[in-house]
Amino acid sequence: MAVLVEEYRGEVLENVHNGRICITDSEGNIVGSVGDAEQMTYFRSSSKPIQMLPVLVRGLDRKYNLSDREITILAGSHAGQPWHLEVILSLLGKTGYQESDLIMLPAYPDDGKYRDQMLIQQLPPRKALHNCSGKHIAAMMLAEDLCGDHRDYWRPESAAQKEILHYISAFSGCPEEKIKLGVDGCGIVVFAVAQKCIAQAYTRLACPETLNDPNISAAAKRMQKLIHENNKMMRGEGYLCSIFNEDPNIIAKGGAQGVYGFGLKKERLGVSIKIEDGTEQIWPNVIAEILRQLHYDNQDTLQKLDQLSYREIRNCTNAVVGHAKTVFHLEMQS
User: Fold this and answer.
1) What single DSSP character describes residue 34?
2) What is the C-alpha separation between 34 and 332, in angstroms, rounded?
3) CATH of the domain at 126
4) Structurally, how many domains does the chain consist of?
């Protein structure tokens, strides 16, 4: 394991965050890495931009007359801000599904401000506020289109999940029979591949012309545009995934347990990150350092990442008592 970030209290090293990084080019070659790029890694929610593509390929957005925001939230992990709930409820209305059809338990918003407001008002949690509700609705639409019934959309043996597995394989370059399946936090299928394959998936999301299927390629290209224009549907106002996707050269999505993937269009590179202890707090630090070591030229994006970065360690009096710093160096292939 490699140390990515060190935390100091005063001058004493107190914590370290180990992790792995892999960078691939448009031909699937590893061009940079930290740690073992072959280690099996769950996509978690970083697969959502791939999982929603069958909806576009099959024209289900047209069938249900979905707006651009409604399409984009299918690829996101929304934070339960008011406009997210509005879009999710609109999706349920247009598709004819009930909130009870979603298999996860009711949730409060991930966004602390709106969660606190609901608790103060003694409002109950609801399934539409779960950050994965968009992904579930996408799978329900796919299941109904494939077999006429949306109710078993979450089962690994369902037609919908088999179709999604085909897309995960096409983007990651990992044969379907080698992809390991698990159960995600929201109760639906989650996919594990070698970490280099997550990087490769983001290379193809950034450069969809490298895909063999022109219909999937066109859908991925359209999805890029939608994500840039509706980036707040990817996570929410003030959050990394929404801010990072403001850059028109980048396509990005995080997942639980410290997994993050992003693709660079102009550079034709895909990047995957796994923080071993599962923290998300240091994502901006690690991403900004990767981009700097790649000599990324969009200073506005780097500045936004720096503003989100975890650098100062503060105590309960709000005094600065320590600092965090990145310590890794990418091993670049010649």
Assistant:
1) E
2) 9
3) 3.40.710
4) 1
